[in-house]
Write a structure and sequence with these properties.
The chain is an alpha+beta fold. It contains ten helices and 28 strands.
Length: about 525
């Protein structure tokens, strides 16, 4: 049933008409106030029902029937108005941004996005969506759904042609919506037809995280705050804040992307940057107030999950990269994207600024590591010697030496200026997934379940941190406090003293989850 909100009556003529009708009913009811009062005073004080001999009974029945008929008329009127409202809604123009783009993002981008163009067709922007793929048939013929290849693919019974493939057919209502949109002229109601579809759709609130985790989530991101008194950890639709000394949960930041892949506290500032998303669907870069947990700015939404983030040394810019093969550099003060660097042919796995923020390095699954001018985005150096996926990258404090590592199980040392290899560090038993350079210390973590600390520039192994029982994905180092945090695939976080390698604390970063050790 249609339930009007009277506060909306001034804005919605249908609701307004229903409100006026309801008001009329109320006035009719109040006009009978005296008769109802008389009826109440005619009660037999010794019984819960009206006295059969009371003169109020006929009046009561008459008034009750009148009110019932009035209310019934009101209900029927509301239902009629609801149908009118529904019919009016069905006659409104279909919005590409609100009605069509969300379906394309959820159902089509995995196969027809920036990384994969099945059948030679891409639709991660409106401009590309209008271009034919290998079939050379026009995807959209404005005004003619039956002449549009996209509509044919949505409705065909041939499983080899139907879209989306390897998934359920779209509901009939959504298919009809596409047909109406095309029939109405396939209008674009966004700001920029070249912009990624995900940037056109208003950000909806993310789902609530689990109240209690039934099992731990892999820890893919950790970050110390500026005084190392708190540690941020990526969770499921949340960021959890922990005491690194006690291993206790301090608070939970909600309204976060599905998985957080990288975290960074703003140098000389008060913000916490988080990037992540859902693979193959969407990614985002966002700024949070780590104390209140509020979302301060959504810097950008991308066509695929974001995997890496880092602040410039002065905290004025944030670089983010990921599954869209791109590097996005945002101005923190305005929240606007300053640069979009599209040099990689595969996922951007890691990013690092140099000491003065003039250059930024990237690592990619396309088997290269690269260095750019962070002001102009100009590519200055490409390192090609890995011959396999590169997962981690770091720059020395002076920006002259670069470090990269990945699936070849070693760290490469090379000159930032010309990309010439100057050495390597071996001894890893599996992929090296992350590098972190600070104060002449190079930290690395690996799927061999170990963390290693090397002194630079002599490459001396200072210490190996062991004890994790699963792949180690996440690292952060706070030189002022001599603290190292690591996170592994089984949800475990470990806090270490880097002066002597002592393990200070171990906890599972899953609120409400009870480990066997804690249950004893």
């Amino acid at each position: 049933m249609f339930h009007p909100s009277f506060s909306d009556s001034a804005h919605d003529p249908v609701v307004g008409q229903a409100s006026r009708l309801f008001s009329t009913c109320l006035h009719q009811k109040h006009d009978r106030r005296d008769a109802l009062s008389y009826q109440a005073h005619s009660r037999n004080p010794t019984t819960s029902h009206f006295d059969a001999c009371s003169p109020a009974r006929p009046a009561m029945l008459h008034i009750s029937n009148a009110v019932s008929l009035t209310l019934m008329a009101f209900v029927l009127a509301l239902d009629s108005l609801a149908n009118v409202a529904q019919d009016a809604k069905s006659l409104t123009t279909v919005s590409f941004t609100n009605d069509i783009a969300p379906v394309l993002i959820k159902k089509c981008l995995t196969c027809h996005g920036p990384e994969k163009a099945k059948g030679g067709y891409q639709l991660h922007t409106f401009e590309l969506m209008l271009k034919a793929g290998d079939s050379e048939s026009s995807p959209i013929t404005a005004g003619e759904p039956d002449e549009s290849e996209l509509q044919r693919r949505l409705t065909t019974a041939d499983p080899d042609d139907r879209m989306p493939q390897k998934d359920d057919t779209l509901p009939a209502a959504q298919i009809a919506l596409f047909a109406r949109w095309i029939k109405e002229g396939a209008r674009f109601d966004g700001n920029d037809p070249k912009a990624p579809l995900v940037s056109l759709v208003p950000r909806a609130s993310h789902p609530e995280p689990p109240a209690s985790y039934r099992f731990p989530m892999p820890v893919t991101a950790v970050a110390f705050n500026l005084d190392a008194q708190e540690l941020a950890v990526g969770g499921y639709h949340e960021i959890t804040i922990w005491s690194p000394t006690e291993g206790k949960l301090l608070r939970r930041i909600k309204n976060v992307a599905q998985r957080t892949q990288a975290l960074a506290y703003q140098p000389k500032g008060s913000l916490l940057a988080a990037v992540g998303g859902a693979p193959g669907e969407a990614g985002e870069a966002a700024l949070f107030d780590p104390v209140s947990g509020s979302l301060v700015k959504l810097l950008g939404t991308m066509s695929d999950v974001m995997l890496a983030a880092c602040f410039s040394p002065d905290g004025s810019r944030l670089a983010a990269g990921g599954g869209d093969n791109s590097i996005h550099i945002f101005d923190i003060a305005t929240g606007k994207e300053q640069l979009l660097i599209q040099q990689h042919a595969d996922w951007v796995m890691a990013l690092a600024f140099d000491g003065d923020g003039t250059h930024i390095a990237s690592a990619s699954r396309d088997r290269t590591a690269r260095i750019y001018n962070s002001k102009t985005g100009e590519l200055e150096t490409t390192y090609n010697d890995h011959n396999t996926a590169v997962f981690g990258v770091a720059l020395g404090s002076d920006g002259k030496r670069a470090y990269s590592a990945g699936r070849d199980r070693k760290i490469h040392l090379w000159e930032a200026k010309d990309g010439k290899k100057s050495g390597e560090i071996g001894g890893f038993d599996d992929d090296v997934v992350r590098l972190f350079f600070k104060k002449d210390n190079l930290f690395s973590c690996s799927t061999d379940k170990l963390i290693r600390q090397h002194a630079m520039p002599d490459r001396k192994l200072v210490r190996t941190y062991s004890g994790h029982k699963d792949w180690v994905h996440a690292l952060d180092y706070h030189p002022g406090a001599n603290r190292l945090a690591s996170g592994s695939h089984d949800g475990e976080v470990r806090i270490w003293n880097t002066e002597d390698g002592t393990l200070l604390k171990t906890f599972v970063a899953a609120p409400g989850y009870v480990t066997a050790q804690n249950s004893k």
